[in-house]
Amino acid sequence: MTAPGIRDGQDAEDLDVEEVLALVKDGNRPARPAADATPDPAVTHGHGHGHGSHAAPSAEARHRKTSATPWADARTRAARAACSLAARRAPVSVTLEDALGLVLAAPLTALTDLPSFDTSAMDGWAVAGPGPWAVRDEGVLAGQEGPARLVDGEAVPIATGARIPLDTTAVLRSEHGRTDEKGRLHPRRDLQHGQDIRPRGQECRSGDQLLPAGAVVTPAVLGLAAAAGYDTLTAVPRPRVEVLVLGDELLTEGRPHDGLIRDALGPMLPPWLRAMGAEVVALRRLGDDAEALHQALTTSAADLIVTTGGTAAGPVDHVHPTLRRLGAELLVDGVEVRPGHPMLLARITEDRHLVGLPGNPLAAVSGLLTLAEPLLRTLAGRPAPEPYTLPLREAAHGHPQDTRLVPVVLRGDHAVPLHYNGPAMLRGIAAADALAVVPPGGAPAGQEAELLDLPWAAAGIGACFT
User: Fold this and answer.
1) CB–CB of 407/417 below 8 Å?
2) What is the DSSP string of 98-141?
3) What is this structure's pTM?
């Protein structure tokens, strides 16, 4: 029997402790006791909700709950937080090999005509005047310069990309010509003046703007830049990110044992951040050491520091006390989103920010997309993605008051919610194409839901991890 307030297919283990308590408060008691909904210690990472989750919430924790920022507002604040810093960042000159994924800091202007001379668009013969034509013995290959001028009634074999001899009328494709017993060339079909000749400057003239500042450097942009004569590009530098993994209970290898669990976020966050355009300068594991955290925050030269775990109000949750000790400005202190509501954003100095992610893995992903992605996007000069929606193929249960982010796969013109979407779970997000933004109260089948694409869903992994 399904308990009141939990929709078909919704398991109490999909909810974190606060979600279960919220349902109970509303008179919607889950099928299992609230204690059963506690994240499994074998998969919970870095005390995502603070040690002692079953203890009565402290006054500080209650304050954070009531002062939490709506999800959409939190994303806006994160994007705006980096605006002044982004404006002060000096552009860098990078080689084409290092430019993939960066954003142009200056327009890409052609340094030459493209093509820079009249070229053949096909393999065949360059011909002059009407046929038939006498064919020269020596052909014209790509890379040769100054082929001899043609006279009417003359043809010369020519390769694709080769320079057109002066006074050429057209290029006759190989399959459109035949030679007679005397070696004279005849057309198999009518030939138009200028046919299969790429004239100089057909694509652009020297000085033409090819792409504006703000364009993302894709593989195609690299090809265009090279063709236009560039060896380096002026780009917005990658934001520098340092990842600090907190928690004494974390293992870096082997199976969980004796109350210790594997660190899931250390392997996951650096490549995810690189997919967002960041340069990950360090990954450090600090355990539950307040002094080590303070030292790391005061010495880091990164634009953004990302911490995992320790954002709640438990006895070894050191992020808030350390930020207070540093005099940091809390820009977001809790977000009305599940999973991941204890996430935070702070300005440590004028040029450095910190995003505190909850320790539960899927809650950390929520914080990454809610706070880190908009801030990094602004620092990298990337445009905001165009929002889009798809109808849900199945109902997605929601939180009574907060937005919920649910992993989905895209099938045709629908988004299909995935199971295993609790805050401590990665099984759902590992199979997902996107996260659906589910409003408070949930969304029935057929309702349009905003989607947040995952960086690797639209392109090959190798293409996005630059």
Assistant:
1) yes
2) G-TT-EESS-EE-SS-BSSS-EESSSEEEE-SSSSEEEPSS-B-
3) 0.78
